[in-house]
Structure formats: structure tokens, C-alpha cells
Amino acid sequence: MIRRMSEETHESGGHGGVTMPGREPVLRVMPLPADVNAAGDVFGGWVMAQVDIAGAIPAMRRARGRIATVAVNSFLFKQPISVGDVVSFYATIVKVGRTSITVDVQVFAERDPAHPIVVKVTEATLTYVCLNADGSKREVPPAA
Questions:
Q1: For residue 61, what is the enclosing H or E element?
Q2: How do residues 44-60 score in pLDDT, each as one tens digit?
Q3: Can you tell me the distance from the alpha carbon of 124 to that of 127, in angstroms, rounded to the nearest whole number?
Q4: CATH value of 9-130 in 3.30.930.10, 3.10.129.10, 2.60.40.1470, 3.30.530.20
Q5: Strands 100-111 and 86-96
Q6: If we measure between CA atoms, which residue out of 129, 126, 119, 14 comes closest to residue 65?
Q7: pTM of the prediction?
Q8: Which of 17, 30, 41, 81 is deepest in the core (most CB within 10 A)?
Q9: SS3 of 131, please?
Q10: What pLDDT sits at residue 144?
Q11: pLDDT digits (tens, 9 = 90+) for 97-114
């Protein structure tokens, strides 16, 4: 049985934590005790680092090469993450500019394996810039 916590809670359906119908996460990770603060919640900085990695995956694929994060356009922590949660990161390109790629990242935590619930914990938008080998900006290649 799946418990609902809020309107942003989703059924895990026993599919290995996949929480967005028809989509696979670009990253899935379980935080460890070393990742928590004194209150027992996962550090926000840990979450931000994972979001940056998740957003970079589709950006690197679209850029077909090196990228760098140039902006965190928005970042919202909706609920805390705990040790033992299976955290899934979904990333979608929302804008392609001349040299930049903007990515939306949605983060869900699957909690309590005995009575699984899936909760949206974070959402963010980041912008990456395409780089040449020497670190200079380059144009985003045409879509394949």
C-alpha cells in the first residue's frame, strides 16, 4: 500500500523508485550518514551537488562535449531528505541558446521501504555553457 503525503507525493509502484510515468531518472542515489547535518537531515549542499550532476547529464549530451555550470536560476527545497531515502533526479532541457543550455531538475525521495511513499523534495533550474577544450565558450551544436 502506498501512503500519500501531499499532492506532490507519487506512487512508486514497485518499479525501483521510478516516480515520473514514462521517464527514467538521469541519476539515482541514496544519501549516507556522512551526508547529514546535526539535525539528521541531508545537507542542502549535498543535494545541490547532485542536482548539478543530474542537470549536467542532458546538457553534456546536447552539447556533445564539455560544459560548465554558469547559473543556478532557481532552487527550491520542498521537503528534507533523510539517510535511507532513494533519491531520483529527473532532468529536462527547457531552453537552448546560442552557447547555453538551461535544464529543469525535479527531485523525488522514495521513503520507508515497508510502507513506500514518494515525495517531491527539490526542484531547480540551472544553466550550463558549452566550452571548447581550452575553456572558451562555443556554440551549441545543431540538434541531432
A1: helix 44-63
A2: 999 999 999 999 999 99
A3: 10
A4: 3.10.129.10
A5: antiparallel
A6: 129
A7: 0.86
A8: 81
A9: strand
A10: 79
A11: 999 999 999 999 999 888
| pLDDT at residue 76, rounded to an integer | 98
Q: Are 130 and 103 contacting, i.e. CB atoms less than 8 angstroms apart?
A: no
Tell whether the model's pLDDT for residue 36 goes beyond 90: yes
Q: Which of 138, 97, 122, 99 is nearest to 25 (CA)?
A: 122
Side-chain half-sphere CA neighbours of 44 within 13 A: 8
Residue 95, all three cell numbers: 531552453
Q: What is the DSSP string of 79-123?
A: S---TT-EEEEEEEEEEE-SSEEEEEEEEEEEE-TTS-EEEEEEE
Task: Give tens-digit pLDDT for 1-19.
Answer: 333 334 344 444 444 444 5
What is the CA 46 to chain-centroid distance, rounded? 12
